[in-house]
């Protein structure tokens, strides 16, 4: 049974990572498929809200619970601090830099959304 919990925790990590990638880059998909905006806009809003507020994503406690059920240990902090920061961001990341990176994601997606809107209203 522990193996199933371990596999489930790993699946949650993969889904969580895929969601983060979609939040960051999903707006670019809308350049080819504008209907993606119906999925990306709420995902990006949720991602920005979690980053700006400092809330933990609900998937982090789920992953921790699954790891505990598998006999492993949970971790402190959130998904980004555990997996993304060590892989992507430099050591010593400050809250100000985190807010700047979150703002950059919002700004880039706004530009993409404007491009999609222009294409839809004015043609390619």
What do these coordinates show?
- The protein is mostly helical and 124 residues long.
- The N and C termini lie far apart (54 Å).
- It has helices at residues 2-29, 37-53, 59-69, 79-88, 95-122.
- The protein has five helices and no strands.
- Helix 1 (2-29) packs across helix 2 (37-53).
- The longest helix has 28 residues, at 2-29.
- The model has no long low-confidence stretch (mean pLDDT 81).
- The radius of gyration is 17 Å and the shape is elongated.
From the structure provided, what is the oligomeric state, counting identical versus distinct chains?
single chain
Helix proportion: over 70%
| Strand segment tally | 0
The backbone outline, from C-alpha atoms, is: elongated
Average pLDDT confidence is 81
- The CA-CA distance between the termini, in Å, is 54 Å
Gyration radius over CA: 17 Å
Q: Counting H and I runs of at least 4 residues, what is the number of helices?
A: 5
Low-confidence stretches: none
Major β-sheet profile: none
Q: Which percent range describes the beta-strand content?
A: under 5%
Write down the secondary-structure element order.
HHHHH
Return the structural class.
mainly alpha
